[in-house]
Amino acid sequence: MTNQTLSISARRLAFNDRNDGDLVRAVPVETPVAIEVCGIGYAVMMATPSDLRDYAAGFALAEGLVKHVRDLSDIIVHETEGGWIIRLTLPAEGTAIALERARRRVSESSCGLCGLENIQQVLRPLPPIRGLITTSREAIADALNALQHHQTLGRSTGGTHAAAFCRPDGSILCVREDVGRHNALDKLIGALALSDIPASGGFLLLSARCSYELVEKAVRAGCPMLVTISAPTSLAVERAEQAGLTLVALARPDSALIVCDVHRNIS
Q1: Is residue 97 within 8 Å of 65, Cβ to Cβ?
Q2: Between helices 212-220 and 234-243, what is the axis angle to 10°?
Q3: Which stretch of DSSP H or E encloses residue 60?
């Protein structure tokens, strides 16, 4: 397995007891991961080099390059000097989408969201949530309490995000970790798709603030409910309401905030 941590030397600076000292600490590996689509450079992401096949599948689904993971003809993960390369082979429709986006990116400014056309793309309608689950406050609390025990990389470094897929009873079925919260969720979505586990049958739990991108990834994966440990942004709330996604935020050991639950997934 590729190293996911790196040991560094540091000096502890104590604020109260003056118990300073030299120590060795593990930090998560962050490295460039280049994504190529049919031989064309599509994106370079900064990620933890683990579960990259899952990441590739989840990224392709989240980007709308494929509708089903079975549409991916091939996924090749290759380590190169200074980072990693993921090579995707897509059907004709996905290839055309990727090539057009790559062409536009050349003329765009670095923000990647400039111009009316891009704003329209960001705010494009989301597919409505079709799946329904029945869960409870006890299940959410159980998942929160169990998450830390599934965060192997997080426990050793204190510097990564986790994305978990939970059954309606709160038991955790699958977890993926990464230095980036978006990457962690892409890895999880890809892992579910590659294992033929429908995201509609449970809920997502993320150790991150709830930005609109995470809401959109959850909706496009067909998951009916998203729980995050931090606060949502205004656009995240708006997009969740539009799609009918049950959104729970500020999930803590003693409470959580139900932001929207139009389908009454939480009993």
Answers
A1: yes
A2: 20
A3: helix 52-62
pLDDT at 111: 40
Residue 120: the pLDDT is: 67
Residues ≥6 apart with Cβ < 8 Å to 109: none
Taking the C-alpha atoms of residue 199 and residue 254, their distance in angstroms, rounded to an integer, is: 27
Q: Which residues contact 124 (CB under 8 A, 6 or more apart)?
A: none
pLDDT score at 196: 97
Query: Which pTM value belongs to this model?
Result: 0.91
Please state, rounded to an integer, the average pLDDT across all residues of the chain: 90
Please say if 174 is a catalytic residue. Answer: no
Q: Annotated catalytic residue: which of 111, 114, 210, 223? A: 111
Q: Which residues contact 103 (CB under 8 A, 6 or more apart)?
A: none
What is the rounded distance in angstroms from the CA atom of residue 41 to the CA atom of residue 246?
A: 36
Q: Identify which of 230, 247, 237, 189 has the alpha carbon closest to the alpha carbon of residue 212.
A: 237
Could you report the per-residue pLDDT of 54-105, keeping only the tens digit for each? 999 999 999 888 999 999 989 999 999 999 999 999 888 888 888 887 776 6
Contact between residue 142 and residue 171 where contact means Cβ atoms under 8 Å apart: yes
